[in-house]
Predict the 3D structure of the following.
Amino acid sequence: MRVYKFGGASVKDAEGIRNVYDVLQKTGYEDVLLIVSAMGKTTNALEVVIKNYFEQSSELQSSVQDVKNYHDQILLDLFSDPNHPVFEIIANHFTDLECFMEHNKSPNYNFVYDQIVSMGEIVSTTILSQFMSFMGIDTQWIDVRNFIKTDANYRDAEVDWELTQENISKNIKTNSLNITQGFLGSDENNFTTTLGREGSDYTAAIFAYCLNAESVTIWKDVPGVMNADPRYFENASLLNQISYREAIELAFYGASVIHPKTLQPLQKKEIPLYVKSFINPLLPGTSVAKGVDLEPFYPCFIVKREQLLISLSSIDFSFIMEENISEIFKLFHEYQIKVNLIQNSAISFSVCVEDKFSNFSELNSILSKKFKVDFNENVTLYTIRHFTEEAATTVEANKTVLLKQVSRETMQIIIQGT
Ligand code: ASP
Ligand code: MG
């Protein structure tokens, strides 16, 4: 069995969906399980709906209508016959959504979020499977919520591997093209849960693990995993092979091509992960598998923008020791501030952090009672795996370096500005 994952960008319009058909024709679809995300930016659009719903905004209706219109346009482009059953099936899904919003009494934001946001994947997979059938492929639409069971930690649910394994082994038939939703699961009471934003790669890995799949392929609009983001680096090159360990390191430092949770289940069973271009599906792309760490052995650049560099020093020249450090980390955790780099000396402690939820000013007032706090806003963190002098020069040229940290395989450089 092969598991294919198509993300939002690959199915953002009718042309994208026709292209999925094309990829299946070219690579074969016998024994394929397709995992599909919501179309284009639907998840973001549904997040707006959720926000409007909670704020009882007058824009709620129009935000729902935007999502409907977007899918309607795709349906009209794909199916010329307005009596095709897909129109009614999709309309019914949206009616379900509206019924939920009308009758829901739960004030739990995360719970409501999952019940609403899941519509993106339900609708995208319905359209895709109807289209594949229409094109003559024997297709099975699967509701992933009957397979992936999780706890009730909405928006970041934890998979119950035992139940999930049992459901998948018993009930997945491999004699037709199976199409199912990425990102979703369900809890004990069969309420919808989600696995965290961009979680569809992880769904692919869960199925691959439980099915002992031959491989997972993530289809992308790039040729594979590059050693740098081609938008920012002139000489970005394709990596042919990456070991699991190296891929986990790259994901840890923030390479966004592969969702970090995806790799562990695959590594456990040594199932190869291919990252390939949906525009040139017959090219080999990148393979993440057992074997050499990196081929070709290029330095890899990972860039994180809009970081905050914070330096804490003791007010009375006392040492910053374990107990202060653990206290500081506890606060970062509490304020949902993600630490991306740490450096300490006897009386000072520097961290490069990401303040996604704009909590730093509040935290700063607490830290300032105990420490002298200095900080630089809007800094950029460059990580170079397998650095060379030349690679470092590329990053540092004409820039103000605020901090640099070197270990055996990794160099991290913090630059003022972007
Ligand atoms: N549709 C979800 C998101 O945009 C899941 C995914 O795309 O992987 O986060
Ligand atoms: Mg996505």
Summary: The mean pLDDT is 95. The longest strand covers residues 300-314. DSSP finds 13 helices and 17 strands in the chain. The first helix runs from residue 14 to 27.
